[in-house]
UniProtKB/TrEMBL annotation:
Protein name: Nucleoside ABC transporter ATP-binding protein
Keywords for the protein's UniProt record, in alphabetical order: ATP-binding, Nucleotide-binding, Repeat, Transport
Domain ABC transporter: residue ranges: 8-245, 265-503
CDD domains cross-referenced by the UniProt entry: ABC_Carb_Monos_I
Xref: PANTHER family: CARBOHYDRATE TRANSPORT ATP-BINDING PROTEIN MG119-RELATED, GALACTOFURANOSE TRANSPORTER ATP-BINDING PROTEIN YTFR
Source taxon at top rank: Archaea
GO molecular function: ATP binding; ATP hydrolysis activity
UniProt key word ATP-binding: yes
Length: 503
């Protein structure tokens, strides 16, 4: 921390939204120069609202912000950027048909910071940061060619180009594989050594404890506590986040019953080739029986995302066969798979799983329409109300537009809708990412219950090995497109699975 004077002081900040939602209630904290602070809290605790106030997106109802001791009012993000506060969100803001350099130069110019966007400076910063991250980035590369990780890296570069004193990461690293997240930490660490500060919103307590100097916890809009890293423990943080509900968190294996001897999803010798001619799915053979959860372990980018997309009929299969309850669905498109009663939780669900301008009800109704034409509003409303109750979605009612929900609450709507829809099978990729631990445990229990009592087949890919072990009956591992297994989840050795994931 070094100096005593805070870079940012948040004083008595309160913010309510229409419908009587108190998102923030008299919140106070400081951020010092040269420190990394993590902001934690359950879904809907007020984390995003807090950082949006710091970034001039929302105006507080009450309270004040001080920057280096001076009272400051932000009416928009440009005001915040001028004071050295820059936010990076979960969804990259790049324009696909422009190069990296053009994106940065034009992006900064539009914001009114053209002077900071000289091509030579942009190229220099790209060189420096990509070197630190160990990723080679050519400024002439078109944005559409970049991976999600590379796009997020460009977003962070943008913050440095804007001379940020405080970089806010609003779950910006959530979708990155651990390996790559750690590379970003190195960059933040160097930034910190040079006096820069970071405020990171994350759901992972272990991550907060690994990277942050201090941890701030919000609960139901109030400041619940602030811990220095040395005094923080998982238990203490959970207690501050969830109170008594912390007792519900468990990573014990959920009880199974023997699956039925009936095939639900059968994947035979499946090959998916990417645009460069590489086999991203390489001769996969996987069987999911009714009543069973089959988990695919693997680090991100091992081919599991494409495997699931192929089963859903969302991408082309080059060889092999996929059958769902006896129907050959290979290359027959997503419509047929959906007609068979298959629920789907996609990768980056906030982008691929929901239309944010529409209401909760409309987002549920689209999936339950008959013959893809007639919307059955009464049925959809019933489902929407049930989903909101069961998953404790924080919103006024089912007519609430999805875009004003917190990220975790949007995820609850998607998970709830897809589980309601899953009559024969559920295909899920990281179904609890963006959910707090207590909600994640609840969702895993519901998925398991659907398999055990609803007798559906569940094909689950997750980068979270705890989740794989907690839910699965059978485990496969994917690594560089190849599939290893099956392993019986009860007897499988974690070390063996981990080895196969990274070998
Ligand atoms: N524009 C808005 N209009 C109405 N309510 C809002 C708006 N933005 C946020 N809220 C509500 O304020 C509360 C806090 O939301 P916020 O997004 O700050 O939570 P969060 O801690 O970031 O949660 P998560 O972990 O789920 O992302 C939620 O109940 C949310 O629905």
């Amino acid at each position: 921390m070094g100096e005593n004077k805070p870079l940012v002081s948040v004083r008595n900040i309160s913010k309510s939204f229409p419908g009587g939602i108190i998102a923030l209630d008299n919140v106070n904290f400081d951020i010092y120069r040269g420190e990394i602070v993590a902001l934690l809290g359950e879904n809907g605790a007020g984390k995003s609202t807090m950082v949006k106030i710091l970034y001039g997106v929302y105006f507080p109802d009450e309270g004040e912000i001080f920057i280096e001791g001076r009272k400051t009012v932000f009416y928009n993000p440009v005001d915040a950027i001028k004071q050295g506060i820059v936010m990076v969100s979960q969804i990259p803001q790049l324009i696909d048909r422009l190069s990296i350099r053009e994106n940065l130069v034009i992006g900064l110019s539009i914001l009114g910071f053209g002077k900071l966007a000289r091509t030579s400076r942009v190229d220099k910063v790209i060189g420096e940061i990509s070197g630190k991250l160990g990723m080679k980035i050519d400024p002439d590369t078109m944005a559409w060619k970049l991976t999600y990780t590379q796009k997020q890296m460009i977003e962070i570069l943008r913050a440095f180009l804007l001379n940020a004193k405080l970089v806010i990461l609003d779950e910006a690293l959530t979708y990155l594989p651990l390996e790559e997240r750690r590379r970003f930490y190195t960059v933040l660490d160097t930034f910190k050594k040079n006096g820069g500060s970071s405020l990171i919103i994350t759901h992972k307590i272990t991550e907060a404890m690994e990277i942050a100097d201090r941890i701030i916890v919000l609960r139901r809009g109030k400041l619940s506590g602030i811990l220095r890293r040395e005094e923080a423990s998982i238990e203490k943080i959970r207690e501050l986040m969830f109170g008594e509900d912390a007792g519900k968190i468990t990573y014990e294996r959920l009880a199974s019953v023997a699956p039925l001897n009936e095939n639900c999803i059968s994947i035979e010798d499946l090959v998916v080739v990417d645009e460069y001619g590489r086999r991203i799915v390489d001769n996969a053979r996987i069987l999911v029986r009714k009543g069973e959860v089959v988990g695919i372990a693997g680090v991100a980018g091992s081919g599991q995302k494409e495997l699931l997309q192929a089963v859903m009929g969302l991408i082309r299969v080059d060889k092999g066969r996929i059958t769902i309850i006896g129907n050959d669905v290979t290359n027959k498109g997503v419509g047929l798979v959906r007609q068979l009663g298959v629920g789907y939780i996609p990768d980056i669900p906030l982008r691929h799983g929901v239309s944010s301008d529409n209401t909760i009800l409309e987002n549920i109704a689209v999936l339950f329409q008959k013959d893809r034409a007639i919307i059955r509003w009464d049925e959809a409303r019933e489902i929407a109300v049930r989903v909101m109750k069961k998953y404790q979605v924080l919103a006024r009612n089912e007519e609430t537009p999805v875009k004003i929900l917190s990220g975790g609450n949007i995820m609850k709507v998607i998970v709830g809708r897809e589980l309601e829809y899953s009559k024969t099978a559920l295909i899920a990729y990281n179904p609890t990412r963006a959910l707090d631990e207590v909600t994640a445990v609840m969702v895993r229990r519901i998925i398991k219950d659907k398999a055990v009592n609803g007798k559906i087949g569940v094909l689950l890919a997750s980068e979270d090995l705890d989740e794989i072990f907690q839910l699965s009956d059978t485990i496969y591992v994917m690594n560089s497109g190849k599939v290893y297994g099956p392993f019986n989840a009860e007897t499988a050795k974690r070390s063996e699975i981990e080895h196969l994931m990274v070998m």
